[in-house]
Amino acid sequence: MSDIILETRGLTKHYGGVHALDDANFSLRNGEHVAVVGDNGAGKSTFVRQITGVEQRTSGQIFFDGKEVDHAGPLDAREAGIETVFQTLALADDLDVPSNLFLGRELFKFRLGPFSWLDRKTMRERTMEALKTTAVKIPNVDNPIRNMSGGQRQCVAIARTAAFASKLVIMDEPTAALGVQETAQVENIIRGLKERGVPLILVSHNLRQVFDLVDRIVVFRRGRIVASLRRDETDGNDIVSYITGVKGNAEGAYA
Fold this sequence. Notes:
Elements: E1 4-15, E2 18-29, E3 33-37, H1 44-51, E4 59-64, E5 67-69, H2 74-80, E6 82-85, H3 97-101, E7 108-110, E8 117-118, H4 120-134, H5 150-163, E9 168-172, H6 180-195, E10 200-203, H7 207-213, E11 216-221, E12 224-230, H8 236-244
Parallel strand pairs: 3-10, 3-11, 6-9, 9-10
Antiparallel strand pairs: 1-2, 1-4, 4-5, 7-8, 11-12
Helix pairs in contact: 4-5, 5-6
């Protein structure tokens, strides 16, 4: 049985005449952590949106967990086992932390049509366990999300992803708006996923973070994958050369 959890073949996305993603061949092995890097507009977030079903691809194939998939939307992808932290966070401002963690997968004491009864006690207990496991500190989990700082909101989204991680986690710039302490917290969550053997795709501009956390670095430039390099066989200058176009296409653009 193959240890490839995710593979794309010729993945392409056009917006009219704009080629945002062009012929992306990519693979990720079970337990592997891979960084996706590139300049703004290089195709990184477009790539994530195709995998997670946020947008429908123009052409190409996606294989997940040994099967070709065509996710109709993010809920489809999540049900298949893909947990994602998007840059937009996808949190409900008026709900508290437990309600956000269990958004779309609420626990019920009983369900009888319109007379369903949420099991708030269990959801709160499991939320506290998830926050403890991920070392995320939220002073009052009963507070609506809108009353929290940007860093706290980001950490809630990441804790939700880590708590329910099943087959694959994708994080799109998870620390872009965070301070030093909160960034360290998120990086520890990522290390915890590695220890649990959960594969990860990390989209990041932070090369220090990338070299600290991942096994392999995939570089996007102008919608194309131009390099796939083992972390221990490259350095920051090499990666920047691919990002800026000083170096061209690498042999074997995916591994």
